[in-house]
Amino acid sequence: MNRKKIIIALTLLILMGIIIGEFFCRLYLGLGDPLLTVKHPTIEYMNAPSTSGSRFGNHYSFNTYGMRSDEIPSEKQDGTLRMLVMGDSIVHASGHVDQSELTTTILQRQLAQNTDHLKVEVYNIAASSWGPPNLLAYTKEFGTFNADISIIVLNQVDLYDHPSFGPLNPKSHITEKPLSALWEFTTRYLYYKIFGDADPTNYLGSKPIPNRSTSLEIIELINTLKQANIKVALFYHPTIDEVEGDTHPALQQFKQLAHEHDILFADAFQTYRSAHKSGHKIYRDTIHHNAYGQKVMAQEIEKLVLQLSATSN
After folding, report:
1. Of 29, 93, 104, 214, which has the fewest beta carbons less than 10 angstroms from its beta carbon?
2. What angle is formed at CA 64 by the lines to CA 40 and CA 37, rounded to 5 degrees?
């Protein structure tokens, strides 16, 4: 075989390897179509509006307001219960949970079955590593959407989590799609595996500022929602370490804040611990739920919503 034929054969083998690698990374690993983030001058950052795709084999879709939800009608129909579930990656769930298995999607189905409302709309206002100041800024930017109920989901990180407005970390907040699925695998995962850098899939991206509580922002967010005649409740989401051991001091501080401002408060410790002890895995890491955990959280929040509906706030 002459040199020219060898070069052609090697070229074809390389091209075939790239094509096979691309198909493997895209179809089997679910790479190449990440959820995108955009910078924002007051919110810090948010989900890229009007985007959709598939990540790790899970469908995702964001509406024009960057909610991981259906489009929100400009006018609310009579008899509609409209609900906002606000939080961070716990509510957002990233690409590890399919849109159909999100807590907010499940809540919409369950509440439609278990209430007398003609229609139920549940909107997912959350982004990876958001804290209460981000949620407050989002509400100031886009309003309260004529909602009836809002559930603010908090965890221990939220007590001191403030925006930094610095450059977005490309490991946790992707701003543009990669050249290909194979390119993403090589540069985003394989590189860090070989050189021992931090695993981008486990980066929380929180910005804790010691001795600077987010209580004022939470109170302002609550008041903003209440001024719009929205019934508000706080829901505390424990980490797996809290479920297995002691609670974090943030739990008591959030509970005290809710008491002082006459806001319903609930946590999921009893249910999460029961599921954990019975061998049902509800976490995919130390803090985020898998699909089954999303279902469990939806059931807990539904109880809170029904309790909230029976009160004046």
Report:
1. 29
2. 40
278-299 burial code (b ≥16 CB/10 A, e <16): eeeebbbeebbbbbebbbbbbe
User: What SS3 string covers 16-80?
Assistant: HHHHHHHHHHHHHCCCCCCCCEEEECCCEEEECCCEEEEECCEEEEECCCCCCCCCCCCCCCCCE
Question: Which residue in this structure is represented by tokens 């939800």?
Answer: 69
Going by C-beta distance under 8 Å and a sequence separation of 6 or more, which residues neighbour residue 184? 25, 31, 32, 34, 178
Q: What is the pTM of this model?
A: 0.90
CA distance readout (Å), 25 to 52, 182, 186, 202: 19, 6, 10, 20
